[in-house]
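For the sake of transparency, this paper describes our internal protein records without simplification. An entry from our holdings is shown next, in its original layout:
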Amino acid sequence: MSSAVLVTGCSSGIGRATAFALVRAGLPTWATARDPGTLADLEAAGCRTLALDVTDEASRVRAVEAVEAAHGAVGALVNNAGYTQIGVIEELQIDSVQRQFDTNVFGPLRLCQLVLPGMRQRRHGTIVNLGSAAGLVTPPASGAYSMTKYALEALTDALRLEVARFGVRVVLVEPGAARTRLMATGWATVPTPEDSPYAAFVRGVNAMAERAHRPGARGVLSPDDIARTIVKAITAGRPRTRYKLGSQARVAPAVRRLAGDRLWDRMMLRVTRT
């Protein structure tokens, strides 16, 4: 039986580019999204498509069972689905933070649990979790998103040790700034009112983010850049445990460590000053 790849969050951005890259590489690819109507071009390219809401247990089980029915087991899982929200800690609504964890952490965790029995039985499989540079260094006003990405760091490190004896590889991909809809979604998710005591700070953060993601900005990744790395991780005989992509993931953590808390805070406050 062929080794199939299940990819979450394929309606846009990294997930979409990854599904295209995987099917071009000749791998049986199951592209998923909450609305499968957004996946018509992926289906035309050769992907199998499924409805999958990573926050819904019945939807998760149906998706995994569909792949297993066709291929015997999920050969590789790409936990890509996720979103960001921009907002200061004091003003975040707890239910919005819970939704963020449901999508970015608990959904991937549960999908790992669902695919692992089949992988263990075959003594082969790959799980790729989409982390972020925000799981290495916390950007200003991105506490909720960063908490989820730090959690994925821990999940991946724990799981890698637990399943190594069964021939299952666990990989974390940590991209920096990328040209996707992620930031636009983040700003729309938790708008900061103009009368907020944090309004000036958040405007400064917005200006910093726009500079970092502007066309032609150095070090900004494309979804295709990240997709190529995911394909490499799945097809490699011995993939890396981590793939740090872009200067924000490779350089910023070292600068943060060398600068220490006080100097780093001064630097961040300076670059976010309006």
User: Anything to note?
Assistant: DSSP finds ten helices and seven strands in the chain. The chain has a mean pLDDT of 92. The CA atoms of residues 206 and 272 lie 8 Å apart. The beta strands are 4-7, 29-33, 48-51, 74-79, 125-130, 168-175, 242-245.
